[in-house]
Amino acid sequence: MKRKRRWIAFAPFAGAVALMLLSSARAAPALQTIITSDRVMNAVTVSDDGRIFISFPYWGGGKATGPSVTELDHRNRPHPYPDANWNAWPRTHDAAHSFVRVNAIRIGPDGKLWVVDSGEANVGGKENPPDGARPKLVAIDLSHNTVDHVIPLDRAVTPHSYIDDLRFAGPFLFLTDAGDPALVVIDTRDGSERRVLQHARSTTDERDMMAEGHVLTTGGKPARIQADQIETAPDGHTVYFQPSSGPLFAAPAAALEDPNLSEAQLEAQVRQVYDTPTTGGTAIDGNGNLYVSDVDHLKILKISPDGRASTLIADPRLVWADAMWIDSHGRLWIPAVQLDRTATFQPDGQSRVKLPVAIYRMDMHLKPAR
What we know:
Its main location: secreted. The protein is mainly β. It is built from 3 helices and 30 strands.
């Protein structure tokens, strides 16, 4: 007896991107294939009432084009989110009212969908274009499906910045700069933006990145992705972060938030948690356990708050597991984005991404961190 497949196409992008939802019966019990696409998906986030949002990076490769941020509707049909206009940058070049280069999405503790738009930035190498689109955060009200507010990040960046990811702790926002190593701390009460731990060991990629047994290179040189992964502990007291090549570090949130501390005083409070391998993405559960992808050995590590690590799952399908998400039902969502196979990281500049790419899920009954 043949099992049925359900195919879903973007409207009005039919033929450009197709998502395939597979029944869990077709997948391995531990790792279920939930969504596949002929475009590279780099992040997934799920609201507490079950709404699913997916983002597509500009570096994704594949022959299809389409929106940067999408939502799957109740019939599992994806649509540009919050609307087509916000996903029309290639046509309008209206940087103030459209997504330029989305690098991360996540539902915040306020229930809004937060989008990290890196603007026209480069990761390492040459300076960003001085007249290019600037980075910003976009907060979307899910109840009205409209943009609630935008936070420009002009004061938080340098000519080499690439704003990468975002986490929350009370009124503070913490961001990673993967281009010019640092963390960015935003106090939403007064709008202040500060760069901390600039070029510190904890934010700087100082060793070769390894993926699928090879050194990751770009432009003939070892690739460097600076401060990349970041998580906040469930109680909001600790911030975990690392360059993509590891190791994993932690600092008290209060120290990062304190503008009166000198860089030396702040660095004195940073500690190494675990010597992580090259990492694509992380997540944290409500008990403070970290889930860290090992893109060299295609597995997910579970690191306890006291720094003990074990292998959660190893699977050849987990090629560059990226921005993971734990939903309100305790399920771990894992996008496998194949970043190391994209043209940027190939010596001959030819993509070796094997389409379709997939988002997987593990039904683990974890305690959500929110």
